Amino acid sequence: QVQLVESGGGLVQAGGSLRLSCAASGTMFRFNNMGWYRQPPGKQRELVALITSDGTTNYADSVKDRFIISRDNPKNTVTLQMNSLKPEDTAVYYCKATIANTYWGRGTQVTVSS
To answer: Can you say how many angstroms the Cα of residue 106 is from the centroid of all Cα atoms in its chain?
Structure first.
């Protein structure tokens, strides 16, 4: 059974940085797309960043030039480096990965104080 576990969330002041990691278990195969989504309080879940198996990336306009997504294929992990954080980045961040099916992690809270 495939499981995704996020780590690295927390409380940070505006302008600070956090690094989120997502570790996948339960499969020896490489995921197709891996990505990060977030759900701000009272809002719908939205795409933050996506990375394909060959390393092509896609970012939401709101995080371009501040966030960097990367992945380690042998380890089946995906990381999100978040810099210059803003209060509007406050959300629960979810890891998502696809390989035949779509899998989600349980989420990790990121809170950015002003």
So the answer is: 11
Q: Measured in whole angstroms, how far is the alpha carbon of residue 38 from the centre of its chain?
A: 8
Query: Does pLDDT of 25 surpass 90?
Result: no
What local confidence, expressed as pLDDT, does residue 31 receive?
87
Q: For position 100, what pLDDT does the model report? A: 86
What are the DSSP calls for 2-61, one per residue?
Answer: -EEEEE--EEEETT--EEEEEEEES-SSPPS-EEEEEE-TTS--EEEEEE-TT--EEE-T
Cβ of 14: how many Cβ atoms within 10 Å? 13
